[in-house]
């Protein structure tokens, strides 16, 4: 029996391939690895999706169901929470308009300026370019508490407190460095020879940038724009300091539902759904470009 087993195990080696026992061991390890990956994915999905699903469901519950000690998965849906948000003294429309304008304009300006600056930084041959790149991204890594007071003093002197331009400028202080750093990385992945070929063919520097380089960096543009929009849309710290009655945004409106007399959980989950839903839809709409941009330059191996 031992002789037969040994012959079977070494048959693959005699034929020039791996032994059968090693093949079975590798197959078993691959199965365990796939199972572990599946378990991790399921846990991450549950951790991510269950709170969002529970928030969306809570926005359609009445006050008794949403505050019930026993979780209710089956209930009579109601739109009262959303109606109350857009009627009377709690009208959410101004906050929504402010969020759309401030986040949209800040993301657009950050993308445009970050694209131009990132292109210049990636193609520049200046000394200390890497130090300059690190300094730019270091301004993004600084704690918000470290920059709020200096910005507040400057904004107060300039008359930008409680104004949409001031809020847009505040959002750009942390979006623009991120956009410059990210777009410079995307442009650096484009071979300069492609641009040089366009210049030899008769294009100007601007034409080569607009018609050749930018189309090759579509994934980077979409990724940078979406991330800048998400950062500005979800901001609470800067909006608390620089916004006022004339420029308050949706996160500020959500915080006002938490009072000393209690919390209106129905309206709070409804406004949370309104804040989260546009960003989820935007991410799903550009998911192909977003994944390509986030994985650009990654090294994969079998």
Q: Could you say which structural class the secondary elements and strand pairing correspond to?
A: mainly alpha
List SSEs in N-to-C order: HHHHHHHHHHHHHHEEHH
Q: What value does the Rg take, in angstroms? A: 27 Å
Could you state the oligomeric state of the chains shown?
single chain
Distance between the termini: 38 Å
- Which outline best applies? flat
Number of strands: 2
What is the level 1 CATH name of the largest domain? Mainly Alpha
Low-confidence stretches: 1-5, 297-302
Number of helices: 16
Main sheet makeup: 2 strands, antiparallel
CATH topology call of the largest domain:
MetI-like fold
What's the pLDDT, averaged over the residues?
A: 82
Instruction: Tell me which CATH architecture of the largest domain applies here.
Output: Orthogonal Bundle
List the domain count as a whole number: 2
If strands are numbered along the chain, what order do they take across the biggest sheet?
1-2
Q: Helical content, roughly?
A: over 70%
């Amino acid at each position: 029996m031992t002789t037969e087993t040994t012959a079977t195990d070494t048959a693959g080696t005699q034929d020039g391939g791996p032994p059968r026992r090693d093949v079975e061991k590798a197959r078993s390890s691959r199965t365990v690895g796939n199972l572990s990956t599946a378990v991790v994915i399921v846990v991450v999905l549950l951790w991510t999706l269950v709170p969002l699903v529970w928030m969306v469901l809570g926005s359609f519950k009445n006050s008794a169901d949403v505050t019930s000690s026993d979780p209710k998965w089956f209930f009579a849906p109601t739109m009262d929470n959303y109606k109350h948000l857009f009627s009377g003294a709690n009208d959410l429309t101004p906050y929504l308009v402010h969020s759309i304008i401030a986040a949209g304009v800040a993301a657009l300006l950050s993308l445009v300026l970050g694209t131009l600056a990132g292109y210049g930084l990636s193609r520049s041959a200046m000394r200390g370019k890497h130090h300059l790149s690190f300094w730019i991204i270091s301004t993004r890594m600084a704690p918000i508490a470290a920059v709020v007071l200096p910005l507040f003093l400057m904004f107060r002197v300039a008359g930008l407190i409680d104004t949409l331009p001031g809020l847009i400028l505040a959002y750009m202080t942390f979006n623009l460095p991120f956009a410059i750093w990210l777009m410079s990385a995307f442009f650096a992945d484009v071979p300069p020879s492609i641009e040089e070929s366009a210049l030899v063919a008769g294009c100007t520097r601007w034409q080569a940038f607009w018609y050749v380089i930018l189309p090759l960096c579509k994934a980077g543009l979409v990724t940078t724009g979406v991330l800048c929009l998400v950062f500005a849309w979800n901001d609470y710290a800067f909006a608390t300091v620089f916004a006022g009655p004339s420029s308050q945004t949706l996160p500020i409106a959500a915080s006002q539902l938490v009072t000393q007399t209690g919390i209106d959980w129905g309206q709070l989950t409804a406004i949370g759904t309104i804040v989260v839903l546009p960003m989820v839809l935007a991410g799903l709409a550009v998911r192909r470009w977003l994944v390509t941009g986030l994985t650009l330059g990654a090294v994969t191996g079998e």
